[in-house]
Amino acid sequence: MAPVEWICQLCQDILLEPLTLPCCGESFCKTCLQQWTVVKLDEGAPKARCPSGCGKQIDYRLPSVSKLLSSWLESAHGNELEERRRDQEEEDIHGFSLWQEVAASRDLQVGSTLAIAFGTSGIVIGRHEEEDRVKVKFDTFLFGMNGVFNVSPDELLPQVPSGFGVQIGQRVLASQDLIIGSAVAVPFATLGTVLGPSGVPERIAVRFDSVAEGQPHDLSVQAFEILPHVNLIGGFRVAQNVTAVENIMLQDTILVPEGAVGKVLAQYLGRYSDTRLTVMFEGRLDGRSEVCAAGAAIVTQPMDVVKTKMQIHRMMTSRDDGFRRVKVARFFATFRETHQATGLRGLWAGGSARLCMAAAAGMLLGPALEYAQLISSDATRPLRRQLDLGEDPGRTIVHPRASKEMFIDVKL
After folding, report:
1. Per its UniProt record, what CDD domains does this chain match (predicted)?
2. Residue 156 has what pLDDT?
3. pLDDT, tens digit (0-9, with 9 covering 90-100), for 318-343
4. What is the tens place of the pLDDT at every residue in 76-128?
């Protein structure tokens, strides 16, 4: 004989697919608890109460089947449970199944009153007496309406899989440039609305507000290509332009100078996620490396001119044995010769080209040097992993990248 804890209080039989309620810890058969909930909702109650008698309301989104209890029951009463499982064929409700997550495919009205908004989530709880209607318990009713709603199948859509992190009707934005062929169809951070599952596996349909000319507004996207459009910590939003209000430091190194402009990418998902954002800054904006390089080019240009002349003007003489002897003019002799021939302006000949070259080198080598210093000081750590700065790292966690842009997680 089975222990009393393995007996469902509703059907007085061994638990089949047991669900354990958090209010009292009692377990019931999944089908029994679903039927109990449907009866109470049909009676007009906003929610069913626990059948064990504790009096607490239970959510119509029932808990998951208890895997541990199920394994015990299967090991002790596997044959009996399998026979009962065969007797309980899953009912097809106009293409939907019992307790399936669905959403309204459009605004639903009662007379002239809007009752259910597009995208409102709900649970299929059964077939209505009318042949072509489905009984659904929606999460939200407008104008104080409540209870079970009877809808036609074309007014419902299967809800988006939970792995996408969004639901039908929810506002989202593109997490990156979405490309069709070789053209950008939807730029990063463009807003859109989730329409529902796509015909392609592991994709959903999204209607974007604006797209490139000649591109469709409705696209089939993967989970990583969109983000929920919500306020981040501190009231910031994805793709919002921000400015560093102070120097962002790592130890004694300035990674991002005060006044640098960046763009919010997401809320940081690691440690201290409740106080941090991931921001992409546009490299160094103070121009110190470029200015220093240009200044050095101007100051050293006369020496570069003299050096070049010394390299190309060589004095050759023949020795008695027939071999030629090459002599390079002395530095000061070449300097005097150049000054006498062309004046001071001649010492800065080609200065414009060298100035441009030095400025470009400053823009490229400055950030490269900073990254090299950062990577060499942390050479034992893989490049794309987060720096471990201890229990309270202060104000910055840095993700070095081998490019001009720097990805910084900033503590607010």
Report:
1. vRING-HC-C4C4_RBBP6
2. 92
3. 556 555 555 666 777 777 777 777 77
4. 888 888 888 887 777 788 888 888 899 998 888 888 888 888 888 888 988 88
What is the end-to-end Cα distance of the chain in Å, rounded? 62
pLDDT > 90 fraction of the chain, expressed in percent and rounded = 10
Give CA angle at 263 (258, 266), nearest 5°: 120
DSSP state of 235: G
- Which carries the bigger pLDDT value, residue 145 or residue 228? 228
DSSP 152-191: -GGGEEEPPPGGGS--TT-EEEESS-EEETTEEEE-TT-E
Do 60 and 125 touch, CB atoms closer than 8 A? yes
Superfamily of domain 93-159: SH3 Domains (2.30.30.40)
Domain with CATH 2.30.30.750 in the chain: 163-228
Strand order in the sheet with 134-138: 149-151, 134-138, 121-127, 101-104, 156-158
> 4-89, which class in CATH?
alpha beta
- The pLDDT, as a whole number, for residue 346 is 72
**Where in the chain are all domains bearing CATH 2.30.30.40?**
93-159
In angstroms, rounded to a whole number, what is the distance separating the alpha carbons of residues 60 and 48?
7
The 10 Å CB-count burial string (b at 16+, else e) for 107-139 is: ebeeeeeebbebbbbbbbbbbbeeeebbbbbbe
* Distance, CA of 399 to CA of 403 (rounded, Å): 11
Q: Tell me the C-alpha distance between 403 and 412, whole Å.
A: 25
Q: Which amino acid type is present at position 142?
A: L
One-letter identity of residue 228:
P
Could you say which of 3.10.20.30, 2.30.30.750, 2.40.30.110, 3.30.2350.10 is the CATH number of the domain covering 163-228?
2.30.30.750
Beta carbons of 132 and 153 less than 8 angstroms apart: yes
Q: What 8-state DSSP symbol labels residue 4?
A: G
Evaluate if residue 274 carries a pLDDT over 80. Answer: no
Instruction: Give phi and psi for 331, each to the nearest 5.
Output: -60, -50
